[in-house]
Amino acid sequence: MKALLLNSSYEPISFIPLKRLIKLIVNDKVEIIESWPERISWGSGGMDLPAVIRLKYYIKRPLMKRKFNRKAIFIRDQYTCLYCGIAVTAAKITVDHIIPVSKGGILSWLNAVSSCNTCNSKKSNKTLEEAGMKLLKQPFIPETTLNNEYILIKPKHICWKDYFSNVEWLIE
Fold it and tell me: How far apart are CA 169 and CA 172, in angstroms?
């Protein structure tokens, strides 16, 4: 299980593994906000496993944008065909241009979606209207890689949703 690391301003920074978590606690750089029900123990003691920790000092971080590539589209769309809604394996998923390149479409976050082979073949180089198809969700530009990680990470601590309310609609 991982812990959510917050800036001193309560802004999510990253999900961190146990080793880094313990280092931050031992060096007195964080305070524990929430814990998992599990405990970690060592020879002379133990503690509840932290789920959310907050830095005691503020660190300035630039806004991170997700690099545009095929895998990032699949992660954004949760490896699901945005035409029929079926989950697709990494080996059988494709990228479809909503507005085909042959009709002036460009390769961008807002014009590319994950698609199964069947739907991609059915749509071919047609527009949605020409193919008689609809998108189940509108594509978007992911703000940060952390939002994508939150969507995919399991298990999720119940309180994490408070820090990721802007992506909650993606998790159904």
Answer: 7
pLDDT tens per residue, range 128-149: 999 999 999 999 887 666 777 8
pTM of the model: 0.55
* R_g of the chain computed on alpha carbons: 20
Name the residue type at position 66.
R
Hey, what CATH topology would domain 70-131 get? DNA Binding (I), subunit A (1.10.30)
* Distances in whole angstroms, Cα of residue 123 to Cα of each of 28, 74, 128, 130, 155: 56, 18, 7, 8, 36
Q: Where in the chain is the domain with CATH 1.10.30.50?
A: 70-131
Query: In terms of Cα–Cα distance, which of 29, 27, 26 is closest to 5?
Result: 29
Q: How far apart are CA 133 and CA 119, in angstroms?
A: 9
